[in-house]
Design a protein that fits this description.
single chain; 7 helices; alpha/beta; seven-stranded mixed sheet; six-stranded mixed sheet; 26% strand
């Protein structure tokens, strides 16, 4: 499994553009979120060697601007996508996206198998956010957009869904407004749940990233736009 971060407010590659938001291509054909700036997203994707026309799936975690801002730019190039959209997205926007894609699947509160070994946690609150769960046989991987429902709650949901440990969590952990005590509690809970590898980025915040780096040591995997993670 390969995760290529194509949009992030942190930088791993100085040749790419960085703005607030998150987007990640999984393998070569699955785009998770679209960041806040579609033109920058398209340029980053191209510079990282991907062909937007070869994308088959688009997964949107939640309806905030910094995760849906690039949708229009993506569908301008590729209208042959299957989209997995949370029901928290505007019904009118969902209606329009049905005209601009191959297929739209609206995800509600229930955990859902998307295809093969890809699952949605179902829409969790507050905000109305879904996260991606990838079944890797002995373990699973969780990808979060912003983790508004709490990254610990998301991991717990993933464990309950597939009855197997979550080995790796990647994405925004939404801890940029949290204090040291709150972040330490999240780290301890994730470790107790069996999460062995982490990539906190986007809205995780500088303090949280440093604390995760210290707590996880060599099992901390940096994020940032341009980062390619093989797992």
């Amino acid at each position: 499994m390969r995760f290529s971060i194509v949009f992030d407010n942190y930088k791993a590659n100085e040749n790419l553009e960085s703005f607030w938001g998150f987007g990640c291509i999984i393998n070569d054909n699955f785009l998770f979120d679209t960041g806040s700036n579609g033109r920058a997203l398209i340029r980053n994707i191209s510079k990282m060697g991907f062909d937007i026309k070869k994308l088959e799936y688009l997964f949107i975690s939640h309806p905030h601007w910094d995760h849906i801002g690039g949708i229009d730019s993506v569908v301008d190039v590729n209208r042959n996508l299957t989209m997995f959209l949370p029901d928290s997205l505007s019904a009118l926007y969902i209606r329009d996206l049905k005209k601009l894609s191959r297929e739209v699947k609206v995800i509600n509160e229930y955990p859902t198998k998307l295809f093969d070994n890809f699952y949605s946690t179902g829409v969790m609150h507050p905000i109305g956010e879904q996260s991606l769960v990838i079944d890797e046989g002995e373990f699973s991987i969780v990808i979060t957009g912003c983790a508004h429902p709490g990254v610990v709650n998301i991991v717990k949901r993933a464990i309950e869904m597939l009855n197997k440990p979550v080995l790796y969590a990647l994405g925004g952990f939404h801890l940029f407004r949290s204090n040291e005590e709150e972040i330490a509690r999240v780290i301890n809970e994730l470790k107790n749940l069996g999460v062995e590898y982490v990539t906190p980025t986007h809205c995780s915040g500088d303090l949280a990233i440093e604390m995760f780096k210290e707590a996880y040591s060599e099992n901390y995997i940096p994020g940032g736009v341009g980062r390619i993670i093989e797992f």
